[in-house]
Amino acid sequence: MLDQAGWHGQAALQVPANITLLLPPYSPELNPVERVWLYLRERFLSFRLYQGEQAIVDALCAAWNALRDETGRLATLTGYPWITQAINQAADKPIGMTPEPTRTRFSASLAW
Q1: Looking at beta carbons, which pairs linking 74-80 to residues 24 or more positions away fall under 8 Å?
Q2: Which end of the chain is least crowded, N or C, by CB within 10 Å?
Q3: How far apart are CA 103 and CA 90, in angstroms?
Q4: Of 16-20, 43-47, 93-97, which has the strongest mean pLDDT?
Q5: pTM for the whole structure
Q6: Alpha-helix residue ranges (DSSP H) falling in the chain
Q7: End-to-end CA distance of the chain, in Å?
Q8: Which of 24-28, 51-55, 82-86 has the highest mean pLDDT?
């Protein structure tokens, strides 16, 4: 998805004409990655002083690794109901010329 931020480009992205990938300029409630960054900032990156650039990189790596080690946390953070509904609906409909759709269900617990 493109949130129209100046640093996000779409030159290499080939989107079919019937698909729209634009978000309003500031819409963190529609962009799941914003919740991931919020979680990382709140739990691992806020209220700290770093000695230099390498210390920042190390803290970011440690935060991402901690997130990776928490089974199910990423699905919980990014599993908005509208996203899971869209994925489930897409799984029920064949795309293109595939003879039989793959029927996988995506579910995420939204318990805090």
Answers
A1: 74/36, 75/108, 75/109, 76/108, 76/109, 76/110, 76/111, 77/32, 77/35, 77/36, 77/39, 78/32, 78/33, 78/35, 78/36, 78/108, 79/32, 79/106, 79/107, 79/108, 79/109, 79/110, 80/32
A2: C
A3: 9
A4: 43-47
A5: 0.57
A6: 32-40, 53-69, 73-78, 81-91
A7: 25
A8: 51-55
